Amino acid sequence: MTTLRVGIAGYDEMKAFTMAIARGQRKLGAQEPRVWFPSTESFAKVLSAGNRELLRVIAEKTPGSLDELAALTGRKKSNLSRTLKTMANYGLVQLERGARGRISAKVVHDRIELELPLVGKACAA
Fold first, then answer.
1. Is residue 24 part of a domain?
2. CATH number, domain at 88?
3. Per-residue pLDDT averaged across 79-96, rounded?
4. What phi, psi does 97 have (nearest 5°)?
5. Is residue 101 in some structural domain?
6. Which of 59, 75, 97, 116 is the most exposed place for a label (fewest CB within 10 A)?
7. Residue 21: which of 7, 6, 32, 37 has the closest Cα?
8. How far is CA 68 from its chain centroid?
9. Can you name the residues that pair with 21 across neighbouring β-strands?
10. By the 8 A CB rule, do 51 and 83 touch?
11. Packing angle between helix 66-73 and helix 49-61, nearest 10 degrees?
12. What is the pLDDT of residue 123?
């Protein structure tokens, strides 16, 4: 597996950063974050202890459906579905449709590195 590099940046900062790349004024460096969270609070929420445990269960047990994952974790299927969609939006899992339309989750990365500058902008354009 791989390491996912993430950063924290506000909407305006990310918009300016993305537009600079789209205009060809800036290139994305090899070590720069590929995924951005709008705040440290959102990062902490998505990667809470319970959600990290969920990722561990998915990686180790490889459940074939949300029903199986719900049984393994004791979480409600609706809660799992919402959480996994959020995680998929951040690139933490891939959701795959299998036999009979069953959805399963696959952990994409085995590490996450957070880039969090304390001074200046997160993504200098």
1. yes
2. 1.10.10.10
3. 96
4. -95, 120
5. yes
6. 97
7. 32
8. 22
9. none
10. yes
11. 120
12. 64
Backbone angles phi, psi at 26, to 5 degrees: -150, 145
Let me know if residue 123 belongs to a domain: no
User: pLDDT, tens digit, for every residue of 106-119?
Assistant: 999 999 999 887 87
Least Cα distance to 112 among 68, 46, 16 occurs for: 46
Residues 75 and 114: their CA atoms lie apart, in Å, by 27
Calculate the alpha carbon distances from 110 to 13, 42, 79 in Å: 28, 20, 23
Residues in the chain: 125
Residue 91, both tokens: 């690139």
Q: Please, what is the end-to-end C-alpha distance for the chain in angstroms?
A: 30
pLDDT tens string 2-61: 999 999 998 899 888 889 999 999 898 888 898 999 999 999 999 999 999 999 999 999
